[in-house]
Design goal:
- Two copies of one chain form a homodimer.
- Chain A is an alpha/beta fold.
- Chain A contains eleven helices and ten strands.
- The longest helix of chain A has 17 residues.
- The two termini of chain A are 23 Å apart.
- The mean pLDDT of chain A is 94.
- The interface between A and B is medium-sized, with 24 and 24 residues.
Chain lengths: 271, 271
C-alpha cells in the first residue's frame, strides 16, 4: 500500500483493541478515497488500567510499526493513548499525529450552551487530566465534572448495552453529572458510543453527548486538506488490519463495532 | 534468595496480575517457612480474554523469569494460565508445576453430595474446557454446568463486591446454576473469592463454594513434603514481589487482595 506521491500513502490508525473501529468507521465514511491501515493491540488491551509509562511504551511500539508501513498521518484512536502519549508522539514522529482528545474537547466547547461539561473515560484517561486541561484551554470558564467509568468497557464487550444492569451502572457513575446538570457529556472512550442510547436515556434530552470518533474524522480531513495530502476522487480506498492477538476474534467482534464484515486481517507481534 | 540445598530454594508463583495474591495468602499461611517469589504480569493482565496461544506464550515468559531465580517449584496461580498452559509447562520445565485446576476439581468432587457441580471462570478458562475435563476424569458421572462470568473481575477491581448491581450481575450469570440446583460451585478465578459472600447469598446455603486457593496451598505442601523439599522449622520465609506494571498500584490494590501491607516490590520487564 506504499504509494509514490506523499498523498497516496495510507493513513495509519492504532487503538488498544477493537474500540478504535468506531473511529475507523467515521474515517472511511468521511474520507472514502483514503487507504487505511488499522492496528489493534488486542494482545495488550485494555490500556485504560495501565500506568502512563506502559501506555507510552506501547504507543511508540504501535506507531513505529505503522510508520514503517509508510503512513502519511497517524490517528491515535485510543483515548487512553491520546491522553497520556500524544505530546511525546507528536514531538518524536515525523508524520502528523492526530489524537481524539482535542477534537472531542473542541466539539464539547462548541456544543455546550451553559458551559457545564462532563467527561467520562477510563481510569488512565481521566486520571491523566488531559481532557480537563484541554477543555480549560479552549473554554477557560467551563464547569467541568469528570468521572472514570471502568465497568463500561466490560459491559459493552459482554454485549450488555441496554437493560437493567447497564442502567444501574450508568446511574451509579453518572448521578453526580446529572445532579450538577451537565449540558454536554464527552464520551471519552471508543467503547462508550455503543452505550449512547442508554446514557442518553438516563441523562435526558438536555444533555448533548459528544462522540469523539466523528470529530476526529473531521479533524483528519481538515489537516490532510490543509497540507495537500487529502486523497479525493472516485477510487475507493483499500483497508488492511493488523492485530496482536486472535484474528478470528477480531473478525467477529470487530465486525460488531464496525457494523460490517472485516477482511484482510493479519496477526503481528509487537513488542 | 538462592539457597544451596534444593529444599531451601524459594517457591515461584505467577499470576496475570494481583488476583494470585489470594493463592499467595494461603501459601504463606500453610507453608510459613518457605521463601516465595511472586510475579504479577500486571502490564498484560487480564489473560482471561486472550487466545490460548498468547496465554501460553506469556506463561512461558513468566515461568522462565522465575526458573532463572532458582525456584524449587512453580505455582501457576492464574486459572486461565492453568487451564490452557499447564500441560506445556509441566512437560517443558524441570521443576514441579502446580496449577489451580486439579486441586479445585478434586475438592469439588470431594465436597459434592449429589454430583451437581457448577464451574465459573473467565471466558478463556471456561472455553478451554479444562475444568470440565478434569472434573469428568475424577468424577465421571458428575452433572457439570459451566459459565464464563466476564464482569466479575471488573466488579471486584471496582471494589463493588456487594450491593444491588453486583447481585443483579450474579443473578444474570448464575440463574441457570441455581435452577439446576448445583450443590457445589467452583470459583474458577482468583478474583471470585472476593465475591464469595454475595454469591453465597444468591445461591443459598445448600451450595458449597470451592475456593481453589486453599486447595492449591494444600497440594503444594503435599508435593513438597513427598519430594523432601518442604522447608519446616521456626524460621519465617522471606517474600519478594515482581510486577510488570506499576509498583505503587500493586502495593495499594495488592494489599487489599492480600489483606496486609506488601513491601519488597520490584518492577521487571517480561517479553
Amino acid at each position: 500500500m506504499k504509494g509514490t506521491r506523499p498523498g497516496s500513502r495510507p493513513i495509519g490508525v492504532f487503538d488498544s483493541g477493537m474500540g478504535g473501529l468506531t473511529v475507523f468507521r467515521e474515517l472511511i465514511s468521511r474520507l472514502p478515497g483514503e487507504d487505511i491501515i488499522y492496528l489493534g493491540d488486542t494482545a495488550r488491551v485494555p490500556y485504560g488500567t495501565r500506568t502512563p509509562e506502559t501506555v507510552i511504551r506501547y504507543s511508540f511500539q504501535n506507531s513505529s510499526f505503522l510508520v514503517k508501513k509508510g503512513i502519511k498521518a497517524l490517528v491515535v484512536a485510543c483515548n487512553t493513548a491520546s491522553a497520556v502519549a500524544i505530546d511525546d508522539l507528536k514531538s518524536r514522529l515525523s508524520v502528523p499525529v492526530i489524537g481524539v482528545i482535542e477534537p472531542g474537547a473542541r466539539a464539547a466547547a462548541r456544543m455546550s450552551a451553559g458551559g457545564k461539561v462532563g467527561i467520562i473515560g477510563t481510569e488512565a484517561t481521566i486520571n491523566s487530566g488531559s481532557y480537563q486541561r484541554t477543555m480549560r484551554e479552549i473554554m477557560p470558564d467551563a464547569d467541568i465534572v469528570s468521572k472514570p467509568c471502568p465497568l463500561f468497557v466490560p459491559l459493552v464487550e459482554e454485549g450488555w448495552t441496554s437493560g437493567k444492569i447497564t442502567l444501574s451502572v450508568i446511574r451509579e457513575y453518572l448521578n453526580t453529572m446529572k445532579r450538577r446538570k451537565v449540558d454536554t457529556l464527552v464520551l471519552g472512550c471508543t467503547h462508550y458510543p455503543l452505550l449512547k442510547e442508554a446514557i442518553s436515556e438516563y441523562m435526558g434530552d438536555d444533555t448533548v453527548l459528544i462522540d469523539s470518533a466523528v470529530e476526529v474524522a473531521k479533524e483528519v480531513r481538515k489537516q490532510l486538506r490543509a497540507s495537500g495530502l487529502l486523497r479525493e476522487g472516485k477510487k475507493k480506498g483499500k483497508y488492511a488490519f493488523f492485530v496482536t492477538d486472535s484474528v478470528d476474534k477480531f473478525r467477529v467482534i470487530g465486525g460488531m463495532f464496525l457494523g460490517r464484515p472485516i477482511s484482510n486481517i493479519e496477526h503481528v507481534d509487537i513488542a
